Amino acid sequence: MIIPRTIRRFKERREFRDSPYAHLFEPYKGDEVVSLDCETTSLDVKKGEILSIGAVRIRGRRVITSERLDIKLKPPASLTGESIKIHKIRASDLADGIELDEALEQVLAFVGNRPILGYYVNYDIRMLDKYIRPRYGFGLPNKAIELSHVYHDIIKWKTVGGDVDLRFDTISKKLDIPIIQRHTALGDAITVALMYVRLKFGAPLAE
Q1: Dihedral of the CA atoms 69, 103, 87, 62 (nearest 10)?
Q2: 98-143, pLDDT tens digit by residue?
Q3: CA-to-CA distance for 182 and 189, rounded, in angstroms?
Q4: Of all helices (H) and strands (E), which one includes residue 204?
Q5: For 18, 156, 171, 174, which has the most beta carbons within 10 A of its beta carbon?
Q6: Are 33 and 115 in contact (CB under 8 A)?
């Protein structure tokens, strides 16, 4: 039986209220958002393995690039020629990669209970939960913000007829935001953060 995320989150908050991770389940009351991206070997959550994780914090209209995650993992066995065509990451690029357990600890510490922003953010959350849940007994309880939904809800009022093009490159072009190191986790996380700030506040500020 599939348990709805809201019910599962409530159940896990109660179960982990006396654990070192209790703060992750508390409602977030600050003004920060974490833009997060994972590069993986497959777009299928069941088959994919994480190669790299990038994240950056947004504070108001500022993208705080000095507070970021840029994690490379040890190359998995599923890193084949076919998967390299998708993400352009070779085994040699991951020579200094860290173990998955260390990466997950860094992610939990960096994100905390802040909302998680991303492009197809539910995919990234599901990929992380695939490894977090067996190790910790819970999944990421954070609020998820989907960039394409934010863009759609704002742009649809300016579009007469037809569908809104929600492709990554199109959104970037429409918002006049340069794509930073496309198909790298950190580059995509920063680009998404800049697009989000442009949509919400106008011209973004990076620091």
Answers
A1: -20
A2: 999 999 999 999 999 999 999 999 999 999 999 999 999 999 999 9
A3: 10
A4: none
A5: 171
A6: yes
Torsion angle, alpha carbons of 178, 182, 185, 189, to 10? 20
Would you say residue 61 lies in a domain?
yes
pLDDT value for 153: 86
pTM of the model: 0.86
Let me know: does 51 contact 188? Beta carbons within 8 Å: no
H/E stretch holding 35 reads: strand 32-40
Residue with tokens 């504070």: 59
User: Using CA atoms, how far apart are residues 119 and 168, in angstroms rounded to an integer?
Assistant: 8
CATH number of the domain that residue 160 is part of: 3.30.420.10
Q: DSSP H helical segments within 112-184, as ranges?
A: 121-136, 147-155, 168-175
Q: Is 204 within the bounds of a domain?
A: no
Cα 4 to its chain centre, rounded Å, is: 21
- Tens of pLDDT, residue by residue over 148-195, are 999 988 887 665 556 788 999 999 999 999 998 877 899 999 999 999
